[in-house]
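Quick illustration, no need to memorize.
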Amino acid sequence: MTDDKMIGVLGGQDAAHPIRVPCVLIVGRSGAGKTTLIEGLIDRFREDGLAVGVLKHTSHAVLPDDVGKDTWRFREHQANPVGLLSGDMLTIISRVGRGSEDEGARGYGRRSSLHFLTSWFAGVDLLIIEGMKSARGPKIEVTSSSAMGDLMCLQDPELMAVVGPYKMDAGVPFFYRDDIAGIAGFIRSRLEWLRTYRVEP
């Protein structure tokens, strides 16, 4: 995405609410190397003094607590969210729901849109989201393929860059997977823009 195209997606009738913290979505097929890239970015940003949060999206069912435990019982009584504090670790369990097509961005319910989800990460300098390729938001796609046709977000106007082992011209900046410094620098150069990025609520 060129700077002109990036600026273009900020406006519009359906883009009236700012994301509450700067965030970037790292998307790609399973096994492409998303998690490894994110690990490298976390280390690099922390070396630069940035506070980084990460949100992992999964399509698999994950049980946040054990059936019968206190937090489970509170949730069964429809408390939402439910928190668990142990030592210096705080766990928050919140049911966000899916919603219908007209409730949020591209099929994500209003309470699972970026506008809502980023509100849980107030105070970080950057939120990295692994997954949520169908959500509205700035994306970097990681690929292990040399074929441009294998890119999932090639036609997405919010695609910022492509990361992979084989050079390709997808109309956006390309980075090799081991170029952590280059990718981190690219994201840092757009932090101000990310702070003002606008999506639906």
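Residues 1-16, 99-111 have pLDDT under 50 and may be disordered.
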